[in-house]
Amino acid sequence: xxxxxxxxxxxxxxxxxxxxxxxxxxxxxxxxxxxxxxxxxxxxxxxxxxxxxxxxxxxxxxxxxxxxxxxxxxxxxxxxxxxxxxxxxxxxxxxxxxxxxxxxxxxxxxxxxxxxxxxxxxxxxxxxxxxxxxxxxxxxxxxxxxxxxxxxxxxxxxxxxxxxxxxxxxxxxxxxxxxxxxxxxxxxxxxxxxxxxx
Length: 198
Fold this sequence. Notes:
The protein is mostly helical. The protein has 9 helices and no strands.
């Protein structure tokens, strides 16, 4: 978005973990406020209208109606925990939060390099985003100590890891699937945004 710049490209101003987004990983988006390729966003526009706030929680109106409606559907990255993640960053400090995200990015790279059958990138991005760091570390350890895994094909390994993630997600009542708008609803929304800003 023109004129919208931020120093922290790992955590968006609303609480999305940009470093775990497939668009960011593939180089299509530099992260929130990162310059060329940065996605247009009504929350970013709102920030510009409110003295270019760094994080939404700095606003006296937080959490406003615009912010809360933002969570209804996912984009390329899950919006399920954006409010909770933003509060975690606020309470624990941005540097501490970013350090945790860097560790999650390293773990995500392991899953993408070793256990991706070519169809699991979005799934792994979503799972690593929603699960806690310590759970992910335990999962990696469980996978890497499984002596039978090396005998499996790449596709079988990916299925094994996928099932482990699903079992862990069930324990937390998480659904590891992006909640996307229907194509018809997305077209209507895009038309409204176009008319609003043109």
